[in-house]
Amino acid sequence: MLIAAALGALLPIPAEAHVKWFAPYIVGAPPAPISRTLADAWFWTAILLVLAFFVATRLVEKSIIGEGVLAAMDRLTDPLWRRLDDFVRVVVGGFFVAIFAVGGVYLTPDLKTPAEWVSWVQFVIALGIFSRRTMPVSAAGIVFLWLLALRDYDFFHLLDYLALGLGVAGYLVLAASEDFERRKYRFEVLRVGVSIALMWSSLEKFAYPDWFYPLVVEKPFLTFGMPRDVFIPMAGVAEFTMGFGLLWTPLVRRLSAVALFVIFNAAVYPFGRTDLVGHALIMAIIVAIAADHTRQLHFLPAIKRSLAGVPAGLATALVLFTTGYWGLHIAFYGIDGQAGARPMEMATHTYSPEHPHGPKAAESLAAGELHQGMAMPAAALSEQPTTGEAAAAFETTMAAMHGPMMAGMRHPDPDIAFVLGMIPHHQGAIDMARVQLRYGRDPANRAFAEHLIAEQQGEIDAMRDWLRRNGIEPPSSAGDAK
Questions:
Q1: Is 196 exposed, middle or buried (0-12, 13-18, 19+ CB in 10 A)?
Q2: CA 26 to CA 34: how far, in whole Å?
Q3: CA-CA distance, 399 to 404, in Å (whole number)?
Q4: How far apart, in whole angstroms, are the C-alpha atoms of residue 108 and residue 195?
Q5: Closest CA to 245 of 212, 178, 181, 290
Q6: Centroid of chain to Cα 352
Q7: Is 341 helix (H, G, I), strand (E, B) or coil?
Q8: Helix (H/G/I), strand (E/B), else coil: 344
């Protein structure tokens, strides 16, 4: 259990897996290059720490101590294990009753719909859980809702929810089967579904770290005092590797499930009831994984039992998922992404002037103030801006950019001069985009401004990293460039 505690300490908050609940996002925006993550020392630090814990867990598992730990976990979870099917069915049914009561969503608070009849489909799915004869109908209903959501959301976005939905649907079909050989895989299908869902969604922290920036500003306690650019990649590694751990040997997967359950629960209070509804299903499946007494390995048992299989398996999973994520994004949106993709805000929190984020924040903050974390006075929120005000705001961004950019380009080293000049140049573009979001009304321009902010901020971060690697302390802001 010490290993479980250590894992829990290592994994800060993968509970905000679908950051799109908390921040604005443009699915079609080009992701940060994977090379940026591969060059991040904190990413590799987190990978090495997790590998050490997994290998240590496997060493314990292969010893008599490991069998004792598993036996203790069996005794602790035995009442639940004996009624695990009832538990899963009640939770699945309860989840669909909850989103039926919430209304206006397909399968999660992130996937909104104005169609009232969709809620009644959810109610029928919940009713079908009560009988083994109708469980396959409920499974078909889950798949139907996912397909229905394709009308309003593109396929790449919905990949976040495919694995978990298919996992639950597969469980319902297998649990209803009279064939024992088929039924014995029902919990494994659930485990694979939640594992893939966690690993896939964790990649957002590497592809779009800027989506998480407003969340970190609003709730700084989530980082446990770590710098933002240390915390986000390590949290991404934690979520990915714990998802990977759910596919491994009994002790690894059960301890991974315990760690994930603690982390997900820790997020419920600060993020509220909507977060509980959205994550209830995945949390319940994690409980089922922790309570699963099964020792048999059905897939690649020899590799999973080998110590060398841990790094080999994790490396393979990383290659497959990153290739799939970045490759599919290019296939859907092209190498440069789609700047005009529709920006969407799926926020589960009430807008707060003290902790602004999202398009609404951009509309209520002056140029540059979002960057500094300063809210506009309440009276300014109700004022209608004039053309002159917008022009003055644009001029202010240019005036703030020009001096630092020219000063940076005077550096004697042309490579360093280029980067020191480009950082305030990019910050000026970001500030201009924020002026557009405050005063502009054209949907296409606003979408482009959102895209530009995300893209330029990512490039600023990359340039600042380059300066550090070359022994130059980067400016803390555009105004500090020298």
A1: buried
A2: 18
A3: 10
A4: 18
A5: 290
A6: 22
A7: coil
A8: strand
* The residue to which tokens 């048992």 are assigned: 301
Using a pLDDT cut of 90, give the percent of the chain over it: 33
What confidence tens digit (pLDDT) does each residue in 2-59 have? Answer: 333 333 333 333 333 344 545 556 677 788 888 889 999 999 999 999 999 999 999 9
Tokens of 410: 């005077």
Pick from 461, 433, 459, 438: which is nearest to 448 by CA? 433
Q: In the predicted model, what is the mean pLDDT of residues 308-334? A: 92
Q: Is 177 exposed, middle or buried (0-12, 13-18, 19+ CB in 10 A)?
A: middle
Helix, strand, coil share (%) of the chain residues, nearest 5: 70, 0, 25
- Cα dihedral 276/277/279/284 (nearest 10): 90
Type of residue at 346:
M
> Vertex 121, ends 24 and 85: CA angle to 5°?
95
Q: For residues 88 and 288, is the Cβ–Cβ distance under 8 A? A: yes
Report which of 366, 378, 339 is spatially closest to residue 439, judged by C-alpha positions: 366
CA angle 29, 33, 34 (to 5 degrees): 125
Report how far residue 309's alpha carbon sits from residue 135's, in angstroms, rounded to the nearest whole number. 37
Residue 364 amino acid letter: S
Angle at CA 468, nearest 5°, toward 327 and 478?
Answer: 90
Residue type, 299: F
**Beta-carbon count within 10 A of 435 CB:** 24
Report which of 279, 254, 330, 231 is spatially closest to residue 73, judged by C-alpha positions: 254
